[in-house]
Amino acid sequence: MRVAVVGAGFSGLMFAMALARADANVDLYEEHERVGFPEHCTGLVSLATVRLIGRPAERSRLADYEGFIISGPRHAVRLRTSEPVIKLDRVRLEQEMLDEAVREGVRYRPGAKVRVTPEGDGVA
What we know:
Distance between the termini: 22 Å
Shape: elongated
Number of helices: 4
Radius of gyration: 18 Å
CATH superfamily: FAD/NAD(P)-binding domain
CATH topology: FAD/NAD(P)-binding domain
CATH class: Alpha Beta
Structural class: alpha/beta
Strand order of the largest sheet: 1-2-6
CATH architecture: 3-Layer(bba) Sandwich
Order of helices and strands: EHEEHHEEHEEE
Number of domains: 1
């Protein structure tokens, strides 16, 4: 089966890797020249997410937090979590995920914009 995945963000990379591991023939299209840019996420994820992603997340791990302090002009609230919240370097994470996807056989197409036409689908 041949599959086109549009977008090499976190979800697109996870999907492309899963498809490749299921023996799909995967083309991964990304409009930007590099994954991880522009940066648009805090990189805070659950321990379950780190386990799901595996090695790329472990290599991108910056810090573990047991909770947060949310503060305003007059008050602050401390929130503690039952499991650590993990801070990942999102740019490195997406590059590590892309490297793994390519090793799994995914063909990466940077700088590509994809559009769907009324007659079917096409790549511009």
